[in-house]
């Protein structure tokens, strides 16, 4: 169960073919709107709030169990959560690989639009919109399952684009992904590499990965990733914030963008401020808005969830190593928590055994 339980899904629309989705993307234009819109579950002081009280209670009860287990380490704020095994009853029935590729779910709109035009600046703007617009839909309060080293995932976007992902490192946890648009109209690839630490009432995830957005003519835009903070672990409002600074740049040194989250202290922390500069570092565009409601670049609204809805990702199994094969995921999706916990522990024991064998051979 993810935050989509709180973040309402858009109404089901008429089923469109892959070619229609691409055509609609090519014809898409920024929306006509100028209000400071934020979604219903945006928290007053910033970020996305967890509104489901049953989920809040479950998370906090599990948190108390973890505190009892690991004692002073979590209270000191000097804990790397990637090394701790969490009970499956507080986790979602997906792995970190699923969450990794969901960061590209807006590609069918923005990347197909960008691939259809030669203007590098406009492509650059569309890549920024593609990335930041996904934050609202990838937010989740329940921890994903840790992929096993070598675990894979295969999926498909609604425009026909194919997705591949693999867990390439266990400690530190590193997930690589590769997305190829229809007819190779675009390619997105990169990796997520993070550490997670806990404080008295919060969890902070520091991302070290990068994303790359590539076009057939060789034009490439890259970006880093923000810091993610989950507060209200034991008391107060439970909310998720993206913080820090992210930067975009292209391989031709034409443009750079620097976007800061929460820089304007008079606004909620989910608001963004930034600018695009040219090769001489002259400002050519301003960036504003919030990942909870709208993104404006150069005075034009490139994303607003009232008008631009997220795309679906379908998963299939093409390898025995696929995440969708995992018994703990299958049983958790059926609500069989005890069976899922046993399956999770069996996988963790197998991974410990494999790691021991690798270390013994070094």
Automatic annotation (TrEMBL):
Coiled coil: none annotated. Pfam families: Oxysterol_BP. InterPro entries: OSBP_sf, Oxysterol-bd. SUPFAM superfamilies: Oxysterol-binding protein-like. GO terms for cellular component: cytosol; membrane. GO terms for molecular function: sterol binding. This is Oxysterol-binding protein.
């Amino acid at each position: 169960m993810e935050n989509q339980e709180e973040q309402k899904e858009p109404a089901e629309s008429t089923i469109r073919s892959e070619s229609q989705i691409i055509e609609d993307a090519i014809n898409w234009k920024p929306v006509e709107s100028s209000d400071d819109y934020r979604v219903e579950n945006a928290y007053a002081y910033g970020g996305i709030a967890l509104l489901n009280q049953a989920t809040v209670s479950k998370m906090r009860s599990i948190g108390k169990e973890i505190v009892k287990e690991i004692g002073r380490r979590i209270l000191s704020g000097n804990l790397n959560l990637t090394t701790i095994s969490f009970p499956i009853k507080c986790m979602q029935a997906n792995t970190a690989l699923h969450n990794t590729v969901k960061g590209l779910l807006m590609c069918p709109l923005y990347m197909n639009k960008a691939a259809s035009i030669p203007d590098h600046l406009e492509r650059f703007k569309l890549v920024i919109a593609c990335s930041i617009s996904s934050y609202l839909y990838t937010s989740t309060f329940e921890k994903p399952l840790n992929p096993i080293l070598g675990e894979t995932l295969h999926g498909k976007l609604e425009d026909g684009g194919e997705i591949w992902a693999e867990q390439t490192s266990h400690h530190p946890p590193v997930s690589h992904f590769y997305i190829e648009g229809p007819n190779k109209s675009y390619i997105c690839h990169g990796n997520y590499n993070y550490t997670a630490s806990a404080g008295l009432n919060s969890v902070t995830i520091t991302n070290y990965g990068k994303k790359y957005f590539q076009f057939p003519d060789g034009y490439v835009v890259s970006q880093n990733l923000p810091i993610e903070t989950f507060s209200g672990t034991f008391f107060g409002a439970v909310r998720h914030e993206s913080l820090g600074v992210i930067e975009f740049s292209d391989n031709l040194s034409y443009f750079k963008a620097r976007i800061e989250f929460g820089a304007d202290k008079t606004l909620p922390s989910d608001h963004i401020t930034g600018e695009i500069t040219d090769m001489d570092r002259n400002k050519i565009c301003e960036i504003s808005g919030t990942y909870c409601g709208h993104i404006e670049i150069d005075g034009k609204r490139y994303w607003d969830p009232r008008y631009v809805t997220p795309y679906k990702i379908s998963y299939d199994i093409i390898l025995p190593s696929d995440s969708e094969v995992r018994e703990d995921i299958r049983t958790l999706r059926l609500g069989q928590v005890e069976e899922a916990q046993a399956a999770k522990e069996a996988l963790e024991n197998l991974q410990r055994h494999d790691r021991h064998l690798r270390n013994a051979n070094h």
